Amino acid sequence: MDAIRDGDIDPAVLAGKRIAILGYGNQGRAQALNLKDSGIDVVVGLRDGSPSHDRAVADGIATASLAEAASSANVVMLLAPDEALAAIYREVEPSIREGAALGFSHGLAIRFGFIVPRSDLDIFMVAPKGPGTALRSLYLDGKGMVALYAVEQDANGNAKAIALAYGQALGCGRAGILASSFAEECEADLFNEQAVVWGAVPEILIAGFDTLVEAGVSEEVAYMECVGELKLIAELIEARGIAGMREAISNTAELGAVIGGPRIVDDGVRARMREILAEVRAGRFSDLLRDEEASGYPRLKVARDKARQLNVEQARKKLIG
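The line above is the sequence of Ketol-acid reductoisomerase; the predicted C-alpha cells follow.
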C-alpha cells in the first residue's frame, strides 16, 4: 500500500470552500485549528450553551449553530462522539447543501448504519491515527500524523479529491495518507480498542502490578516496573520496530521476553481476540454503544469510578505527589 503525500495531492478542490466542523472536542478542535492555519475557511457548529463556544472563540474560530454551520459549508465534518452523530445528522440534514460533502474521522456511524446519508452527498473519511492533541502538536512542529482515507459514496465525482485535500490541510500529507474503507478502519479500530492497546494492555499492567504486590514487592517498585516502563517500550517500538526494540534491550530482558511473552499471549488469548473481532463485525459492540448512550452511560460511570480506586492508581499518586 503506497502512502499518498503532499506532492501527490491537489488542494484546489477546497480553494474558496468553507468547511463546517460539527463538534469541538479532541479531534474537532485540532482539525479546525489545523485547517484554519492551512488557509481554509472554517466554521464550528455548536449547540446553544455549549461549553466549547468560548474556547472556539478564543481560538479565533467562527462559530454558529449546527444547522447554520452546515448550511453555510461545502464540506460538513461530523466530529462529535460516535453515538451522538445520528442525532446530529438528523438535525442538520435538511440544512446541508445539495451536492455537498459529508466527512467523518471514524467509520462506525456509516459502517453500522447509525447514519444513512442522502444520495446527493459525497461521503468520505479522513481518520488521523492518533489523538487530536498529537495531530495539532505535530502540525505546529512542521510534521504530520499518518491518516487513513476512504470514500463511501461518490455522488458528485469529487469525494476522493476532497478527502485527500482535507487530509493535506490537516498536515497528514506530510506523513502519509493511506487508502482504506469505512468498514476496515472501523473494525480494526474497534478491535484494537478492545483487544490490544486500550483494553488488553492496561489490564496486563494492572495484573502485573497486583502480582508483584501480592508477592511482597512494594507498590512503588511494582508500579515503576510494570507501568513506568511502558513509555520506554512504546518509544523504542516507534523508533525501531518490534525487532529493533528487542535488539536494543539487554540480553536479560530479551530472553525474558522470548520465554514469558508466549506464555501470557497463548493460543487461548489469540482465540479470544478472534472472538472480539467477530463480535465487532457482527455489530454487537455498536449495539452496546447505542444502549450505553441511551441509558446514560452506566457501565462507563462504574468503570471510571472503579479505575480511580485501583491500588495501582494509589501507587501512582504516591510517586508523583
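Note on the example: The longest strand covers residues 122-128. The longest helix spans residues 230-248.
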